[in-house]
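Hi everyone, sorry if this is the wrong subforum. Our group has a chain we'd like a structural model of before ordering constructs, and none of us has done structure prediction before. Sequence below.
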Amino acid sequence: MTGSTIIDQLTSIDKEVFLVLNGLHTSWLDPVMYMATDTVYWVPFYLFLLYFIVKEYKIMSLLVLAGVALTILLSDQITTSVMKPFFARLRPSHEPSLEGLVHLVNNYKGGMYGFASSHAANTFGTAAFLYLLLKKSKPLMGWLFLWAALVSYTRIYLGVHYPADIVVGGIVGILCGWISFKLFELVRAEIEKRKTPSLP
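Answer:
Right subforum, don't worry. Here is the predicted structure as tokens:
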């Protein structure tokens, strides 16, 4: 079996799984998913997370927020500026062979290309960074991955991403979150070192 054949089979499976997941829709759930995919509606949740960060890290919370920002910057740029134009895989909402089969909400189709998902990368990256940061003091932070999965699923529900877009985007995000966390630890250690008076 050649490499191209394997890729074709995986692509076919990806489309089939997408159609199944995208087909699990109801009229009352459409507006819910449409809102859940929008960052604006998650602002109260972000403020809730900010409360925990400030409570735990005080002035150092500025460094934590810088780590979150770096995670999102990395994950977003890798998926949006590098992967999408490089792979140029049409979103299901723009795929001619799927015309009439994809469930869309409010005729929302997204940009032309979808591999990999920036939503998945950004949310899973943020979840990974905050989980690594707070897992000892706030074990329930593991639930952040459920939030990331929910936001990511909205992209399939709305017909703008295949499952593979989500999986790969999530992996990219988690790696970016891990990198940002390691950099955070290095910077924090350096700050603590400078604050500690040296012995005569």
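For your construct planning: The chain has seven helices and no strands. Helices lie at 3-22, 29-36, 43-57, 61-87, 118-134, 144-157, 163-195.
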